[in-house]
Amino acid sequence: MPNTQSVILLCLSAVVIVAWAYLFYQYWQMTSLPMSDMWMPPADISSWQLIDFGWVYSMWAVMMAAMMLPSAIPMFLVFSRICKQRYQTSYYLNILFVLAYLVVWFVFSMVLTGLQWQMHGLHFLSPMMNNQNEHLAAAIFIGAGIYQFTPWKSGFLQSCRSPMGFLLTEWREGAQGAFYVGLKHGSVCVGCCWAQMLIMFAVGVMNLPGMALITLLVTAEKIVPGKSQLICRIGGVLLIAWGSWLVGAQS
User: For residue 231, what is the DSSP state?
Assistant: First the structure.
């Protein structure tokens, strides 16, 4: 019988690969298809239909899964190990834990969808979902950089970096408990990384290099041994510097 952690790692890797493949496909469509054959969000917010919200939401939901699941793998594996020690059959508990984690990010994707809707109406985003307001981009970079130095960021990050400590503190028994702990971890993760996700509005919503760099930053903050605060602060300095450069370039 295959090791539970190996199965979980394989399944999570498959989900991440499929999510990134979907994003690459979306990017290919935007860069290769003629504009007449391409779906684009309406610039007038009153023209948005349910299908437009659906497309934008699905894009954000897949993006959150692709960007955040890699950084949460250590937590999932520790949860699996504890489940194996306490229960004979634990696959369904692991599934519930991961699903609850994703539910939180999928709810956050609704917030991002609403923000994008408003940004199109304010003409901060082009029909190709690129930023066309340098002041907004600078504010997002600087704001995300400042958040890297706050005690809120440090507290949330510490919970993400200490899977065993988090689970020992928050553990609940049974299926409801697994779902609750997954929701709690997802909430902590959103608290840690929400500002970094907003950077996508500054670099272009479908900017693949931007997605990859943010994913690397988020993952490095959480899993590189003993370097979380250093990586966090370096990221903050770089984001503030980038935003300040944009401000200087406009003057």
Answer: H
